[in-house]
């Protein structure tokens, strides 16, 4: 098993204006775990037998290790973060400086090994498809009341429908759910998503 460095990742690191030292530290940790270094989605990506295990990426506020099937990890240290409520499988571990990375090296390696074991075992994230999302009763009532709303809702992309359904289903109280739906009705009729 080689842990050879990928020239595309070298190039990515040479151009990195932010998080350069963090990326290099993360890279060394991941390469120690005998994964293959690849470059996908414009980021260093580490694979095991061509299956994505972990990706290194950076944002304005933090850089992160992204586990493609993070939802399947035990997360014994409680450090995995779900980026948004709609992300089903991936989980991040976030860092804001090199010291944090160095301090968690042993834990990171344990997580990477676990992620590799998940892949070896052929485990899959159980993705929910839209059919499994239950339309809240309050939304169903609005659909009955305003057929145009139903038509507009069904014309939205599956991701947008899902985001709305999750948003509407969260509150415990019916009247809160209703007010959320009412606030979003115009957006739905305009063909817009929750975040648009």
Can you tag this structure with a few keywords?
alpha+beta, Aspartate Aminotransferase, domain 1, 2 domains, 5 strands, elongated
Short account of what is shown:
The chain is of the alpha+beta class and 196 residues long. The chain has helices spanning 7-15, 20-31, 98-103, 105-120, 137-145, 147-155, 158-169, 174-189, and strands at 36-40, 43-48, 51-58, 63-67, 91-95. The radius of gyration is 21 Å and the shape is elongated.
Helix-strand string: HHEEEEEHHHHHH
CATH topology of the largest domain: Aspartate Aminotransferase, domain 1
Q: Provide the residue-averaged pLDDT.
A: 90
Extended strand count: 5
What spatial form do the alpha-carbon principal axes imply?
A: elongated
How is the main sheet built? 5 strands, antiparallel
Helix content: 40-55%
Whole-number count of domains: 2
- Give the helix tally: 8
Separation of the first and last Cα atoms? 46 Å
| CATH level-1 class of the largest domain | Alpha Beta
Low-confidence stretches: none
Tell me what the CATH architecture of the largest domain is.
Alpha-Beta Complex
Q: Strands of the biggest beta sheet: in what spatial order?
A: 1-2-3-4-5
Computed structural class: alpha+beta
Strand content: 5-15%
Oligomeric description of these chains: single chain
The whole-angstrom Rg is: 21 Å
């Amino acid at each position: 098993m080689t842990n050879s460095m990928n020239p595309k990742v070298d190039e990515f690191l040479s151009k990195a204006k932010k998080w350069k030292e963090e990326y290099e530290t993360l890279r060394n940790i991941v390469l120690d775990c005998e994964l293959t270094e690849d470059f996908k989605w414009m980021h260093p990506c580490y694979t095991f037998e061509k299956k994505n295990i972990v990706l290194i990426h950076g944002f304005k506020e933090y850089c992160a290790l992204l586990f493609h099937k993070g939802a399947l990890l035990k997360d014994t240290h409680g450090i995995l973060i779900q980026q948004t409520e709609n992300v089903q499988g991936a989980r991040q571990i976030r860092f804001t400086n090199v010291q944090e990375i160095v301090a968690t090296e042993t834990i990171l390696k344990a997580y990477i090994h676990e992620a590799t074991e998940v892949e070896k075992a052929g485990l899959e994230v159980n993705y929910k498809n839209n059919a499994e999302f239950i339309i809240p009763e309050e939304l169903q009532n609005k659909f009955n009341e305003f057929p145009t709303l139903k038509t507009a809702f069904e014309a939205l992309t599956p991701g947008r429908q899902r985001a709305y359904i999750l948003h509407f289903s969260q509150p415990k109280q019916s009247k809160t759910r209703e007010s959320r739906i009412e606030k979003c009705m115009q957006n739905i009729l305009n063909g817009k998503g929750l975040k648009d």
